Amino acid sequence: MKREHNYPIGTPGKPWGDEEKAQWLAQTTIKRSYLEEVVPKINALTADFDLLQYGALSYDVEKYPLFAIKTRNWDNNKPVVLVTGGVHGYETSGVHGALQFAETQAAQYSDSFNIVIAPCVSPWGYEVINRWNPNTVDPNRSFYADSPSEEADNLMKMVNGLEGEILVHIDLHETTDSDELEFRPAREARDGKVFIEDGVPDGFYTVGDTENPQPEFQKAIIDSVRKVTHIAPPDADGNIIGSPVQQEGVINYPLKSLSLCNGITDCRYGTTTEVYPDSDRVTPEQCNDAQVAAINGALDYVMKQLG
């Protein structure tokens, strides 16, 4: 039987007010440095890419500049590939997998595509290893007009300013044990709901768009990633995180109606990757490699479709 849990902040059944949100923020701590771990890797790419600072978070504009990396010789006749990482800053391989792809793989696709990579959309979340921003807002449910998330708002403005058709969007994420142990309980407490435990899938999977699922595209990603890490099986009900499995390692969400990052464009080919870093069968390096393999599988498939 699935158990119910009460979160240590707030009153069960009552949504948080300003006092509870302040209590939550007060118990967060800086655990790693965006300026030391991420920004130097971004700056190291400037010999081969154009670097765009598309904003900074008001929590500390000096500590949290927002960067995108763009392939040079932008050609409006080529389709655009958008890669986003760190929308949930705590999902480490999303950030470092995006940077690894830029460093090791992007050049081979630059003849066919304009590529723009936003490797760490939520640098405050990266530092405190959390899903939310300081205002208890989840950026990956906040991609809509007048967003309450600075992270989402800055990214949308950057993307809207890009020239050319965005054909592909790959949003790099992780599903972690802490989703079940911390982040989902906190969310339900914030919203005055009861948290009932579910489970964390052991392995990699993708999330496609219910309105535009592109099953062969998703399959190409799964086939590429399985060379690096294992693919998540369905649970006893045939689901992954509560959604029906459409094919091996693939579920679909209504991306736009949920205000998810992968729904911010009208791209033909979109996917959200989900690496499982807490498995005893993988290393951090394999998690980064899985993100790179996902991007490679996606772009190899699209190149074949373009002929």
TrEMBL record:
Location of the Peptidase M14 domain: 30-307
Matching CDD domains: M14_REP34-like
Annotated Pfam families: Peptidase_M14
Protein name as it appears in the record: M14 family metallocarboxypeptidase
Family to which the UniProt record says this protein belongs: Belongs to the peptidase M14 family.
InterPro entries linked: Peptidase_M14 (IPR000834)
Origin species: Photobacterium pectinilyticum
